[in-house]
Q: What sequence folds into this?
């Protein structure tokens, strides 16, 4: 590129466009000093792979001057969405999030799905990351509180109840089947429910349930019980957050050329779920620049909460805070958490994002990944298929086995298998792994479809069993590896063992280690899922009866508090402590017993 172009650039803030030989825009960026920023691309040094590729193609630079860096950021975001340059990160799914809207201005308010600018006067709840989750919540609100969801134009023309009344989903305020005061009470309860303040509702319905039971009006009492169960299901099952504030948690993970960014939304202490964004990282951008570019686009489209938690320091976080303040008249903080509780939430979210990135990478371009794995494992032939085995039991009972199959196309779920290992005595993992490997390979021999590699969840003992089966069945050309849980069961401490019991972990690149962990985790998940289904059938009727310290009275209190056995089985230690007469130590005993 002509050096005179750089010399003649202005030092003012603005945006710059990198152009190729055909004047096609390659990249759009913003700067507080255009000359200094653009010149930095052409300084000799060990730049990133993405930057080096970009610089090779730049033939010209075009700039647009702005009043300040904040204006430059907004213009940059607008042009990226419009032009979609190859070397910019593109936020393709930039549709606004849906809300639940309560039309409090109406005499008989409606509650409905809403997406767009908040122009109508009323109450808004959300945003929700998934529209189907929002609709499920609306369905529950309608089912529990019987409030209307019809539009005002439809409401005022009704002369007789509609179908929603007939199926017991609306109290028919349109034809005065309910007075304004009682309907307003239903709306107020709905708002408490949507705010996550369900304690008052649960206490109220529980009291009514007891009163109706005392009068032997069991049918009406069962309606109150169902309300309690439904309220707990929607307000407590997603609520893993103790902080009652509003904030987002933004995490990023990259495996091979796949980058996943998750935005987890916490509102009024309720985890409303996450929205994943998957990028094919063709330009080898680092995670700092990816997340930095993403959040600038994301929060100029979506109103942020008071805090955004991230795990890495972003170059433009102060600038983005200023722009949000100007655009939304709202102060926000983009921070790396230092509180222990915030760190724990961030860690949980990061693990979820890491798993999604690994899975996305495996599901998309597995052929290249498995080829790379073959080189690290020093296999004489390319690995195209991997089968993984695992066994699971609970304190020696309900032992089950699983095998999962991964190919160049990712997981092949039609080739997954599960095994009942009731005949294996005393939870013998070695005997169990031998049994399921022999059964699976015998079946595959008949089908003439053999894997290139066997991966077992375990170390020397499990590998020995796999070797024994291969020898007995006279099978050749299959390599065997084991993956062992590391110290404190942290995934970062996992070790990979070859058929000769040598630790080869250090020979594996990070992305290949993550592949083996993903396959192992999938086999474990499949085994656990099988085991839990089997266990739940056996323990459903006698769960509470066999807990030490729980008699008929306490059992009745627990079931009454949660509204039934199913909700009790899903309860946490903190929730169990809320039951009258249950202290922390007893709650822990109950919880751990239920998990068995």
A:
């Amino acid at each position: 590129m002509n050096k005179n172009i750089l010399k003649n650039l202005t030092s003012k803030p603005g945006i710059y466009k990198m152009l190729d030989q055909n004047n096609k825009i390659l990249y759009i960026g913003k700067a507080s000093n255009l000359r200094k920023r653009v010149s930095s691309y052409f300084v000799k040094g060990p730049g990133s792979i993405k930057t080096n590729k970009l610089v090779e193609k730049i033939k010209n630079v075009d700039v647009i001057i702005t009043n300040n860096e904040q204006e430059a950021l907004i213009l940059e975001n607008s042009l990226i969405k419009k032009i979609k340059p190859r070397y910019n990160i593109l936020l393709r799914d930039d549709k606004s999030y849906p809300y639940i809207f309560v039309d409090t201005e109406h005499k008989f308010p409606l509650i409905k799905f809403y997406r767009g600018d908040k122009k109508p006067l009323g109450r808004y709840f959300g945003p929700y990351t998934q529209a189907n989750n929002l609709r499920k919540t609306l369905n529950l609100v309608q089912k529990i509180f019987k409030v209307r969801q019809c539009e005002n134009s439809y409401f005022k023309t009704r002369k007789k109840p509609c179908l929603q009344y007939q199926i017991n989903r609306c109290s028919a305020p349109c034809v005065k089947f309910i007075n304004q005061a009682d309907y307003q009470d239903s709306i107020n309860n709905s708002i408490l429910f949507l705010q996550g303040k369900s304690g008052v509702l649960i206490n109220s319905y529980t009291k009514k349930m007891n009163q109706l039971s005392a009068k032997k009006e069991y049918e009406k009492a069962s309606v109150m019980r169902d309300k309690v169960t439904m309220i707990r299901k929607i307000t407590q099952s997603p609520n893993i957050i103790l902080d009652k504030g509003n904030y987002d948690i933004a995490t990023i993970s990259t495996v091979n050329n796949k980058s996943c960014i998750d935005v987890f939304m916490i509102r009024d202490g309720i985890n409303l779920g996450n929205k994943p964004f998957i990028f094919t990282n063709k330009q080898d951008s680092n995670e700092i620049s990816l997340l930095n570019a993403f959040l600038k686009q994301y929060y100029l489209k979506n109103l942020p909460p008071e805090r955004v938690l991230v795990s890495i320091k972003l170059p433009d976080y102060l600038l983005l805070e200023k722009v949000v303040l100007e655009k939304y008249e709202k102060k926000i903080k983009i921070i790396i958490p230092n509180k222990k509780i915030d760190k724990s939430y961030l860690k949980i979210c990061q693990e979820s994002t890491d798993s999604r990135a690994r899975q996305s990478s495996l599901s998309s371009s597995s052929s290249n990944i498995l080829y790379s794995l073959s080189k690290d494992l020093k296999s004489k032939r390319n690995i195209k298929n991997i089968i993984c085995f695992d066994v699971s039991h609970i304190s020696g009972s309900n032992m089950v086995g699983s095998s999962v199959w991964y190919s160049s196309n990712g997981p092949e779920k039609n080739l997954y298998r599960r095994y009942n290992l009731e005949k294996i005595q005393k939870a013998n993992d070695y005997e169990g792994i031998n049994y399921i490997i022999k059964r699976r390979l015998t079946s595959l021999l008949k089908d003439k479809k053999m894997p290139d590699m066997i991966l077992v969840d375990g170390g020397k003992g499990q590998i020995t069993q796999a070797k024994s089966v291969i020898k007995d069945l006279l099978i050749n050309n299959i390599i065997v590896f084991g993956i062992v849980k590391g110290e404190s069961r942290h995934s970062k401490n996992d070790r990979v063992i070859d058929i000769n019991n040598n630790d080869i972990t250090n020979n594996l690149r990070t992305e290949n280690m993550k592949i083996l962990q993903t396959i192992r985790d999938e086999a474990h998940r499949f085994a656990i899922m099988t085991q839990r289904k089997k266990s739940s059938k056996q323990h459903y009727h006698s769960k509470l009866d066999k807990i030490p310290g729980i008699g008929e009275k306490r059992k009745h209190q627990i079931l009454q508090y949660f509204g039934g056995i199913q909700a009790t089985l899903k309860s946490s230690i903190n929730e169990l402590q809320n039951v009258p007469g249950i202290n922390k130590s007893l709650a822990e005993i109950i919880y751990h017993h239920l998990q068995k």
Observations:
- The chain has five domains: 3-83, 98-236, 247-364, 366-537, 540-595.
- Residues 237-242 have pLDDT under 50 and may be disordered.
